[in-house]
Amino acid sequence: MRRDCDAASSVVIGFVILLMLVALGIGIWALISVPDMVKEAESTHAIELSNTFLDLKLSADKVRVNNFEGARFSMLMPGSSGMSGTTIGFANTTGSILSIYIGSNTVHDAQWKDIGRLSAQVGGTRGSTVIGYEGGGVFRSDNGNAVWLTPGLIEVYPQKIDGNSTIRVDMVMPVLSGNAAISSNWGAPVDVVYTGKKDRIVGPTNETLVISFSTSDDEQRNLWYSLFYEAETRFNAKIGTEIGTEWVGIGTVKASVEDTAARLTIEPGVGGPNDMKLVKVYIREATYDVSLVNRYEES
Fold first, then answer.
1. Cis upstream peptide for 204 (omega within 30°)
2. 56-75: pLDDT as tens digits
């Protein structure tokens, strides 16, 4: 009888030890493999969101360039991935002001407080990632470090206008209206309607012209500084390839950032009476109505 009890106890003990070994193996596998799998899933999800925002930008550019007033385009923002959900948000204003100054005076009708931002925020094991559309460009911010995936729509280049050597600035200012936010694990529909455009011209002027983006948000300010710096770099590269005498002394383009604002300062050169050095800005303000509700279901 005693032997039977000992035999039964040995079987139970062996089975328990086997279960412990299995649990230990699963625990080690989870400790080593699962975090990497979650990080990979989060990275893939961020790439999917980036691609969706790039598609949104391309659609917004297409209807603007062709002036398809009333055109509507929709897309589904990817939902959750890994251990995190996605919060899709839209803000009419981000507390920032984009202004154009000639000398020390603000140009009338060339100041925007309602640029708007559409963004998706993803929380995960590596912190917070924000991907969004603002100022005509797509950006990505990882734990407060933001970069442009595609820059905003501003271009500075030399051009002969009415016989004068001119620093020409082309600006497209997308203005987003609407107000909504949604958190989703399954994806969120984004519906956008192009409502029209408004064109205007600032200048020509032979005074210093400044495009200023002021905000209390350090990350957003640095993001716009990088946009201005890229415009400065492209302008200087263009001048470098146009060695002709017509561009000598045309002026300077300089990006800078301070405590409250990022700036692009454009200073025309000094020319003779037959060859004025000027600055001229062409602005296209494009307006979009953004909704996180599928308007096709409402109609």
1. yes
2. 999 999 999 898 999 998 88
Name the residue type at position 293: V
Task: List residues bridging with 148 in a β-sheet.
Answer: 139
Distance CA 139, CA 130 (A): 8
Contacts of 166 (CB under 8 A, 6+ apart): 158, 159, 160, 204, 250, 277, 278, 279, 280
Instruction: Write out the E strands in 93-134.
Output: 97-102, 105-112, 117-124, 127-134
- Collapse the DSSP code of 193 into the 3-class scheme (helix H, G, I; strand E, B; otherwise coil) and give the result: strand
d(CA 84, CA 184): 10
pTM, two decimals, is 0.77
Closest by CA position to 85, among listed 35, 50, 120, 39: 120
**Do residues 288 and 192 lie in contact, with contact meaning Cβ atoms separated by under 8 Å?**
yes
pLDDT (tens digit per residue) in 2-33: 555 555 566 667 667 777 777 777 777 666 65
